[in-house]
Design a protein that fits this description.
338 residues; alpha+beta; Fructose-1,6-Bisphosphatase, Chain A, domain 1; eight-stranded mixed β-sheet; 15 strands; 22% strand; binds 2,5-anhydro-1,6-di-O-phosphono-D-mannitol; binds magnesium ion
């Protein structure tokens, strides 16, 4: 009788590590700890309607947004996992104004820092709609043996060592890249393991989906308004009109477009002149994944991963997804203005 052939995330990571000369297993260990926190959060998200984790925690976070209880739990869980891993000397999180450094000897000796949005799409928590976690891993610049410094976090996205997201949807998936393509793992709750379900993800060069918050239409730059009209026009040769799909959870919107093909746009608006999404823990990790899957990510002009971060919670416009669609949107911006 043939057995159930599975590749677990851990097995996959270890196999990958064997292909990298001199790899000592530090990154593998870090990813392993992230996956454990993801499993804990999966359980919590799945019970969100039953236990007392819905609603607001009563705090306002540094972005001026009301923190949800699940946000707080996710932040604590991932922070603890990264601290306990011994492979991470500090983190930058959407939920904290300043960087957090793990000031014990083991962590000070660690070579990685992590930027994360522990719970993305928080407005969707209470209504049973997909939410996610986003992470981005860098090698520190400051010398090992001391506390992590701000400069370790303000590195360009093109220096990322690994990036990924977890989507808590109809199933829970972890998708990540270390610069050798993108692989997706679905949580098999029966055995409690992330199993390889989407090997070597390649995003279609073209798609039929455009995703942006059209409620902001009047505040969009002229180029984006014109591009939306283009998406809505009928033209059989180019498969238009496209379908509008927008969940309001970056992870879920990005994941759908990654698999099906499409473009996701969160542009600058009259009220948010640099856009809404954060460079360090939302745009850069998604850009790394998009490019590794054959897609693109820019700010309407410049490649996201080439932007030099100035501050921890910097916001930038994001245009990402299928290569041809992003380039087309970019042409509209350049022709009609930002
Ligand atoms: P969050 O990290 O506080 O949840 O905010 C980020 C979210 C993204 O997931 C999503 O793409 C965007 O905000 C939606 O914003 P809007 O409601 O303005 O369309
Ligand atoms: Mg968030």
């Amino acid at each position: 009788m043939k057995g159930y052939k599975i590749t677990t995330l851990n097995e996959f990571i270890v196999r990958r590590q064997a292909n990298i000369p001199y790899a000592k297993g530090e990154l593998s260990n870090l990813l392993h700890h992230i996956s454990i926190a993801a499993k804990v959060l999966h359980k919590k998200v799945n019970k969100a309607g039953l236990v007392d984790v819905l609603g607001e925690a009563g705090n306002i976070n540094i972005q001026g947004e009301t923190q949800q209880k699940l946000d707080v739990f996710a932040d604590m869980q991932f922070t603890a996992a990264l601290s306990n891993s011994g492979e991470c000397c500090g983190i930058a999180s959407e939920e904290n104004q300043e960087i957090i450094t793990f000031d014990d000897q083991l962590s000070n000796d660690a070579k990685y820092i992590v930027c994360m949005d522990p719970l993305d799409g928080s407005s969707n928590i209470d209504v049973n709609v997909s939410i996610g976690t986003i992470f981005s891993i860098y090698r520190r610049i400051s010398p090992r043996g001391q506390k992590a410094q701000l400069e370790d976090f303000l590195q360009e996205g093109n220096k990322q060592i690994a990036a990924g997201y977890i989507i808590y949807g109809s199933s829970t998936m972890l998708v990540y890249t270390t610069g050798l393509g993108v692989n997706g793992f679905t949580l098999d709750t029966g055995i409690g393991e992330f199993c390889l379900s989407h090997p070597d993800i390649k995003t279609p060069m073209d798609g039929k989906i455009y995703s942006l918050n059209e409620g902001n239409y009047n505040k969009f730059p002229e180029g984006v308004k014109k591009y939306i009209k283009y998406c809505q026009e009928e033209d059989k040769a180019t498969n238009r009109p496209y379908s509008a799909r927008y969940i309001g959870s970056l992870v879920a919107d990005f994941h759908r477009n990654l698999l099906k093909g499409g473009v996701f746009i969160y542009p600058e608006t009259a009220s948010a002149p640099t856009g809404k999404l954060r460079l360090l823990y939302e745009c850069n990790p998604m850009a790394f994944i998009a490019e590794q899957a054959g897609g693109k990510a820019n700010d309407g002009e410049i490649r996201i991963m080439d932007l030099k971060p100035k501050t921890l919670h910097q916001r930038v416009p994001l245009y990402t997804g299928s290569k041809n669609m992003v380039e087309n949107a970019e042409n509209f911006i350049q022709k009609h203005g930002k």
